[in-house]
C-alpha cells in the first residue's frame, strides 16, 4: 500500500453518529462536552492524552498523538444517534446513572438538545427490550433507505463535512454467516425479502457504508464482519472496524495472558464471572444474546496463548466465562477471575483478580478514539477492515484468512506504527544501531 499524501488538518465539522443512545453513548458525549469546556479530563483516550515516540530514544521526540496526527478536534465534533426510546441525551444519561449531577448539570442544555432519531428495531434480535421510538417499513431494504436519509439529513442540518459511526447499541442474538451474507447481491436480495439472518446492526452498517461513513462495531454482533460488508466497504472506499469494545475483564486478560506467556508459565484454567446491572446486563441475561458475548470473550486466550504451538503449557486449558445480571450493581460491573497456572517442575500456583470497574467509563474513551482514528484513516485513503485498531476490541476483525492479534502490547505497537507510517515517520522496531553497526 502506498503511503498517503501529506495529511492536512481536517476541515469542517465531524458528525459522530451512534446507534444506541444509552449509557455508553451518553457517557461518551458528556465527557467530550465537558472536556472541550475544560471541566473534566478525557482520561483513557489515547487520542487526547497519549504520546508517540518518533525516531531514536536519544532524539527525545515524544509528542502527544493529537499534536502529531491531524485528528479532528473535540470542538469540531457534532453528536447524533438512534435509540429505541425517545429520551434525549440528558434524560438517557440521567436514567443510566453512570455520571453524577455535578457532571451532567453544567452541560444539561447541550445534552437535552441531542434527541435520538427513531431506531431500526426488530425485537427478535434483542428479546429483553421493547422499543417505542422505532421505524416502520415494508421490508429491511426500506429500513436501510430510512437510515441513509437520516444520515444525509443530520449532516446537512448540522453543517458537517463528513461523518463516522460507532455502534453503541445492545448485543444481539448469536448469528453465524449464512448464504445471504456472502455477497452484495445476496445481501441486497435478503434486504428486499427481510431475511431473518439480517439483524438490526447489519441494517445500520449497510446504510452507513452505502453513505461512505466509516463504521466501528462496539458489540460482538456479526454486523460488518461478513463478506458482503467487506465487499461493500472496498467498493465505497470506507473503513470498518470491530468487534466488541475491550473494556473490563477482557482488557485484564489481554494484559495478563501475554505476560504469563512471555515467561513461559503454564496454565490449566481461567474461570471468569461478571455481575452487572445496566441495560447490557439485562440483554445478556437472555441465553441467545449471551452466546454472542461468550464467543467474543472466549477467543482471546486461545489466540494469545497458542496452545497448538505450546501444547505442554496451554494444550489442556479450561476457559469458562459467566455473566450474571444483578440490577443493584448498575453500570459498576464486577469481573472476578480465578487463574490456575503452573511453573518450574509443574508446581501449581493461582492468581485472583477482582476488577470493580465501571463499564461505560471504560468504554467512553474507546468510542472517542475510534471515531477520531476512523476519520483519520478515511482521510488517509484506508478502506475495509482496520486491523491497526484491534487494540480496542475483544474480537478484532481481520482480513480474510488471517487470525486476530489479541496481545494488547502488540496491538499498541501496531497502532502507533501505523500512525508513524501514515505520517511518513520511521517505524519503531526496537532494533538499536548498536546491534549491527
Q: What is this structure's SSE topology?
A:
Blueprint: E1 13-19, H1 23-36, H2 46-49, H3 65-68, E2 77-83, H4 89-96, H5 101-104, H6 108-112, E3 117-118, H7 140-157, E4 160-167, H8 184-192, H9 200-210, E5 215-217, H10 227-235, E6 239-242, H11 249-262, E7 266-276, H12 279-284, H13 287-305, H14 311-314, E8 318-325, E9 334-342, E10 348-356, H15 359-379, E11 384-385, H16 408-422
Parallel strand pairs: 1-2, 1-4, 2-3, 4-5, 5-6, 6-11, 7-8
Antiparallel strand pairs: 7-9, 9-10
Helix pairs in contact: 1-4, 1-15, 7-8, 7-9, 8-10, 11-13
Structural class, from helix and strand content?
alpha/beta
Count of domain modules: 2
Shape: globular
End-to-end CA span: 30 Å
**Gross CATH architecture of the largest domain:** 3-Layer(aba) Sandwich
Overview of the molecule:
It is a single chain. The chain is of the alpha/beta class. The chain folds into 2 domains: 13-245 and 360-422, Rossmann fold, CATH 3.40.50; 249-356, Dihydrodipicolinate Reductase, domain 2 (2-Layer Sandwich), CATH 3.30.360. 38% of the residues lie in helices and 16% in strands. It has helices at residues 23-36, 46-49, 65-68, 89-96, 101-104, 108-112, 140-157, 184-192, 200-210, 227-235, 249-262, 279-284, 287-305, 311-314, 359-379, 408-422; strands spanning 13-19, 77-83, 117-118, 160-167, 215-217, 239-242, 266-276, 318-325, 334-342, 348-356, 384-385. Strand 9 (334-342) and strand 10 (348-356) form a beta hairpin. The longest helix is centred in the C-terminal third of the chain and has 21 residues, at 359-379. The model has no long low-confidence stretch (mean pLDDT 93).
Amino acid at each position: 500500500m502506498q503511503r498517503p499524501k501529506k495529511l492536512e488538518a481536517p476541515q469542517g465539522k465531524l458528525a459522530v453518529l451512534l446507534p444506541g443512545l444509552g449509557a455508553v453513548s451518553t457517557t461518551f458525549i458528556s465527557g467530550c462536552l465537558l472536556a472541550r469546556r475544560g471541566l473534566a479530563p478525557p482520561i483513557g483516550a489515547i487520542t487526547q492524552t497519549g504520546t508517540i515516540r518518533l525516531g531514536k530514544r536519544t532524539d527525545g521526540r515524544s509528542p502527544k498523538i493529537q499534536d502529531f496526527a491531524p485528528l479532528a478536534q473535540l470542538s469540531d465534533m457534532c453528536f447524533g444517534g438512534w435509540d429505541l426510546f425517545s429520551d434525549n441525551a440528558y434524560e438517557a444519561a440521567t436514567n443510566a446513572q453512570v455520571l453524577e449531577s455535578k457532571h451532567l448539570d453544567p452541560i444539561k442544555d447541550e445534552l437535552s438538545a441531542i434527541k435520538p432519531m427513531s431506531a431500526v428495531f426488530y425485537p427478535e434480535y434483542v428479546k429483553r427490550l421493547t422499543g417505542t421510538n422505532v421505524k416502520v417499513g415494508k421490508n429491511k431494504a426500506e429500513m436501510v433507505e430510512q437510515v441513509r436519509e437520516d444520515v444525509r439529513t443530520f449532516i446537512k442540518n448540522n453543517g458537517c463535512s463528513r461523518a463516522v459511526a460507532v455502534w453503541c447499541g445492545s448485543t444481539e442474538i448469536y448469528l453465524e454467516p449464512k448464504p445471504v451474507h456472502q455477497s452484495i447481491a445476496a445481501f441486497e436480495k435478503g434486504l428486499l425479502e427481510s431475511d431473518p439472518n439480517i439483524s438490526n446492526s447489519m441494517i445500520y452498517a449497510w446504510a452507513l457504508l452505502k453513505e461512505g461513513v466509516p463504521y466501528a462495531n462496539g458489540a460482538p454482533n456479526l454486523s460488518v464482519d461478513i463478506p458482503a460488508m467487506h465487499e461493500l466497504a472496498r467498493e465505497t472506499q470506507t473503513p470498518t472496524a470491530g468487534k466488541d469494545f475491550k473494556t473490563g475483564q477482557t482488557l485484564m486478560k489481554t494484559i495478563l495472558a501475554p505476560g504469563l506467556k512471555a515467561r513461559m508459565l503454564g496454565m490449566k484454567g481461567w474461570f471468569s464471572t461478571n455481575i452487572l446491572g445496566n441495560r447490557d446486563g439485562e440483554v445478556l441475561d437472555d441465553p441467545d444474546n449471551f452466546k454472542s458475548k461468550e464467543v467474543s470473550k472466549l477467543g482471546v486466550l486461545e489466540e494469545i496463548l497458542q496452545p497448538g504451538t505450546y501444547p505442554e503449557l496451554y494444550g489442556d486449558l479450561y476457559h469458562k466465562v459467566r455473566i450474571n445480571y444483578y440490577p443493584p450493581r448498575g453500570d459498576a460491573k464486577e469481573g472476578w477471575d480465578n487463574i490456575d497456572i503452573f511453573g518450574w517442575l509443574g508446581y501449581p500456583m493461582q492468581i485472583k483478580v477482582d476488577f470493580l470497574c465501571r463499564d461505560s467509563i471504560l468504554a467512553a474513551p474507546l468510542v472517542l478514539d475510534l471515531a477520531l482514528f476512523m476519520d483519520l484513516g478515511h482521510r488517509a485513503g484506508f478502506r475495509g477492515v482496520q486491523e491497526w485498531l484491534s487494540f480496542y476490541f475483544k474480537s478484532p476483525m481481520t482480513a480474510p484468512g488471517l487470525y486476530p492479534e489479541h496481545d494488547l502490547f502488540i496491538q499498541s505497537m501496531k497502532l502507533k506504527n501505523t500512525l508513524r507510517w501514515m505520517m511518513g515517520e520511521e517505524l519503531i522496531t526496537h532494533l538499536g544501531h548498536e546491534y549491527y553497526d
